[in-house]
Design brief:
Blueprint: H1 14-34, H2 64-75, H3 97-109, H4 120-136, E1 150-154, H5 157-176, E2 184-189, H6 195-202, E3 210-213, H7 225-237, E4 241-248, H8 260-269, E5 273-277, H9 288-291, E6 302-306, H10 307-310, E7 318-322, H11 325-332, H12 342-345, H13 364-400, E8 404-406, E9 414-419, H14 429-446, E10 453-457, E11 460-466, H15 474-494
Parallel strand pairs: 2-3, 2-4, 4-5, 5-6
Antiparallel strand pairs: 1-7, 6-7, 8-9, 9-11, 10-11
Helix pairs in contact: 3-13, 4-13, 5-6, 5-11, 13-15, 14-15
The structure holds pyridoxal-5'-phosphate.
């Protein structure tokens, strides 16, 4: 006792709030102004922070200025700059002014809308905004609130997949008995995101009951409906129970698209839950010229896309739609006494806690609503198209340099390419290719002027360039290509054959 501050303790005074927030906003604005001057990929060594910051917490308040100074000196050097116009790794996570404003409002109100009663506006706006986006994507009416379906905002695709897996699992197990869990089988292609693997484990299905079916270059690395059907029949013959199929529109390694309609028919024939993961490419499907990739979506039970990737919505915001919300609710709802209320019991309201893992949830709908209103559908389409155009530019630059080759067809704004080893018909070609491209990628990333990552499909190592950071312009892509060419020349000269 006696160590508490004697002054009134006031952590949320509107005047201070306004003043200090403005300082932080100016700090962030400066960061964006300078972002091109930082090495895109952080150059610090593991453990760098330990020697720079005190090893225990301060006992008394510290001035904001000191904290911002430390952020400048110690934190920014340890950032990999995802908002840099020269960031081409993974997939972009678009920040935007509107996304930030929405995030600020969400954080400012700091309400928790696990039930309708805990913030009716948050629940009802979520229902409305998910219908808006469903319309933008031309999802069938069964996914909208008016058609007995509905959308919900999750933090991540991982969460969306875990929840839909749990719903599918419980739907089957309540019929056949919970001991049959060892018989449930989940299907996907070998290109499906690893979050399916994680989800399968989390819902208690053994890893040996996940079929990652092989894909081929000749089919653009998409899942063949015949391969799927053969696998299902084999499993049925062995007494197993096919449960869930995950199709992908825009795979992470190379942007491949599974044939949704044909897969949907197989799923329907064998009564599988069909989920479509369009985390990255879903955003593009608001443009009529990309919408055909979703043809057959009416055969799906659930569909998800990350608005925090390509939709100008700051982290985090994953949109999940389901045809039958009851299947989610049956699996995920809990109703302890302290959460009971008349609104919930009237059954006329949505309690989104029953559509997700956690109880508490953020007012993400506000963010998405601000983003869509501040831009409008036409501008959002323009945004997608300009990124795709930039990717086309890069693709044609790669195609024009005979030292390089494209390794997968480009559908969206992801360009996959590699430097070719000169010698043909040499059985060591692939290991040489790998050596060259690893070196090239390392040189580019260590220059600090760009950041890309690699992937491997069918034993082929390649560089993947995801164009589409919010700040990326044509000059950046031109600069990137020049950098790649220069480093390629060095690497080819210095690699011994
Ligand atoms: C990014 C991505 C994911 C993972 O998304 P999280 O929101 O980080 O869980 C899953 N699938 C695909 C196709 C992705 O591109």
């Amino acid at each position: 006792m006696g160590s508490l501050p004697t002054n009134a303790f006031s952590p949320l005074v509107p005047g201070d709030f306004s003043q200090e927030s403005k300082k932080v906003i100016d700090f962030i604005a400066d960061y964006y102004s300078n972002i091109e001057n930082y090495p895109v990929l952080s150059q610090v060594k593991p453990g760098y922070l330990k020697s720079q910051l005190p090893d225990s917490a301060p006992n008394s308040p510290e001035p904001l200025e000191d904290i911002l100074k430390d952020i400048d000196a110690s934190i920014i050097p340890g950032l990999t700059h995802w908002q840099s116009p020269n960031f081409y790794a993974y997939f972009q996570v678009n920040a935007s002014t509107a996304g930030f404003l929405g995030e600020m409002l969400c954080s400012g109100f700091n309400v928790v809308n696990f039930g309708w009663i805990t913030s009716p506006a948050a629940t009802e706006l979520e229902t409305l905004i998910m219908d808006w986006v469903a319309k933008m994507l031309e999802l069938p009416p069964q996914f909208m609130s008016s058609g007995n379906g509905g959308g919900v905002l999750h933090s991540s695709t991982c969460e969306a997949i875990v929840c839909t897996l749990a719903a599918a699992r419980d739907k089957v197990l309540t019929e056949v008995g919970y001991e049959a869990i060892t018989k449930l089988v989940v299907y996907s292609s070998d290109q499906t995101h690893s979050c399916l693997q994680k989800g399968v484990k989390l819902v208690g299905i053994g890893p040996s009951n996940l079929r990652c079916l092989p894909t081929a270059f000749s089919e653009g690395f998409s899942l063949s409906p015949q391969t799927l059907e053969d696998a299902i029949q084999e499993d049925i013959k062995s007494g197993l129970v096919p449960l869930y199929l995950c199709g992908t529109v825009g795979t992470t390694a190379c942007g491949a698209v599974d044939p949704i309609e044909k897969l949907g028919e197989v799923a329907r024939k064998y009564k599988l839950w069909f989920h479509i993961d369009a985390a990255y490419a879903g955003s593009a499907c608001i443009c009529p010229e990309f919408r055909h990739y979703l043809n057959g979506v009416e055969l799906a039970d659930s569909f998800s896309m990350n608005a925090h990737k390509w939709f100008l919505t700051n982290m985090d915001c994953c949109c999940l739609w389901v045809k039958n919300p009851d299947s989610l609710i049956n699996s995920l709802s809990t109703n302890p006494e302290y959460l009971r209320n008349a609104a919930s019991e009237s059954l006329n309201v949505i309690d989104y806690k029953d559509w997700q893992i956690a109880l508490s949830r953020r007012f993400r709908a506000l963010k998405l609503w601000v983003v869509i209103r501040r831009h409008g559908v036409a501008t959002l389409r323009f945004h997608i198209r300009s990124d795709v155009n930039l990717a086309c530019c890069l693709e044609s630059l790669v195609a024009r340099d005979s030292r390089f080759e494209l390794v997968a067809p480009r559908k969206f704004a992801l360009v996959c390419f590699r430097l070719k080893a000169g010698k043909k018909n040499n059985k060591d070609d692939e290991s040489l290719n790998q050596k060259l491209n690893k070196k090239l990628l390392q040189e580019v990333n260590e220059s600090g002027n760009a950041y890309m990552i690699h992937s491997v499909i069918g034993g082929v190592y390649f560089i993947r360039c995801a164009v589409g950071s919010t700040l990326t312009e044509e000059r950046h892509v031109a600069g990137l290509w020049k950098l790649i060419q220069e480093k390629a020349t060095e690497v080819l000269l210095n690699t011994t054959y």
